[in-house]
Amino acid sequence: VLALTLGLLTSLGTATVWDVFVMAFLLGIVNVFDNPARQAFVQEMVGRELLPNAVSLNSVLINAGRVIGPAIGGLVIATLGLSACFFVNAASFVAVIVALSLMDASELQPIKTVARQRGQVRAGFRYAFGHKEIRSILLAVGVVGIFAFNFAVSIPLLVRSTFGGDAGTYGIFMAAMGVGAILGGLFVAHRSRPSSGLLSVLCLIFGLLVAGLALSPNETVALIIIVPMGAASIAFISTANATLQLLTAEEMRGRVMAIYAIAFLGSTPIGAPLIGAICAASTPRVGLGVGAAATILAAGALIYVALREMHSPVEIDAS
Fold first, then answer.
1. pLDDT at 71
2. Is 301 left (phi over 0), alpha (psi -120 to 50) or beta?
3. Which end of the chain is more exposed for a tag (fewer CB within 10 A), N or C?
């Protein structure tokens, strides 16, 4: 409905920047309900054993769409006009609704739920931040989301201001990153054994690659680095997602994944203007460098927590 509304406003020539702000705000509200429910629903479809694979393959499909989508969008704009993009987007949701309606509910594997009652939001936060590993993962995702995952701000500035590129160059950069993201998602799906230890290593690799991008002497080197950086970024976020779901009790999963969505997606309103301001006050390289440093520090914190959990004494029930 939101995509259809924006298409109608665009086709009538009445769309304003404030309309876009309102549509984006309403889309955020939709995501508040959609994201946690969709994340928690994955295990019901595939079971606990295949959960990591499903999360990773979902990331692969999303990033494949990011590679293919801009090309299709450009073709639609060139042949049918800008408003047609929004109409095509709106129509694509019909396929999703039909697919959901055709699912055989008897084959789903229901997870535990809790009865609706007061104080469940507080209980969710208490549970998430009372669990050492879950807390450390959520905090790391929040830090990385704020400082490093603002590619929509940092990469266009790097392309234009540092390398003197244009929109075509930016498209090549994003396509290269998308290809890397697909490879990273396939790697995690193949490995299928997410853990806090693996997550900390991926976080460290991602931080080092962001630092490498910031220090790239030219456009060619940056393009070479951005492919594995895209792979590390999606491997990190997919592993964080799957690890959280496996660590969380079934009846708390929806609430924990809602907090995860806040940490990852909700960090954008803080991180985007912050990194934008840093880039404006210095250079895009500095903005990327800040993201790299924050990510490496987050990796250090994850490694510390993982090592403590490994060496913590096992409690034995004397009874």
1. 66
2. alpha
3. C
Of 185, 137, 181, 151, nearest to 298 by C-alpha is 137
Report the 10 Å Cβ neighbour count for 147. Answer: 27
pLDDT value for 191: 65
Mean pLDDT of 224-244: 90
Identify the DSSP state of 161: I
> Cα–Cα distance between 233 and 214 in angstroms, integer?
15
Residue 164: strand, helix, or coil: coil
pLDDT tens readout for residues 109-122: 877 666 666 777 78
Q: How far apart are CA 279 and CA 293, in angstroms?
A: 15
Quote the CA–CA distance of 289 and 295 in Å, as a whole number.
10
> In the structure encoding, which two tokens stand for residue 19, read together?
């309309």
Confidence of residue 318 (pLDDT cuts 50, 70, 90): very low
**pLDDT confidence of 310, banded at 50, 70, 90?**
low
**Helix (H, G, I), strand (E, B), or coil: what is residue 156?**
helix
89/5 Cα distance (integer angstroms): 11
**Distance separating alpha carbons of residues 178 and 155, to the nearest angstrom:** 13
Decide if 239 contacts 51 (C-beta within 8 A).
Answer: no
pLDDT average, residue stretch 23-28: 90
CA-to-CA dists, residue 181 to 22, 165, 216, 228, 260, angstroms: 30, 22, 20, 8, 20
Mean residue pLDDT across the chain: 85
| CA–CA distance, 39 with 241 (Å, rounded to integer) | 9
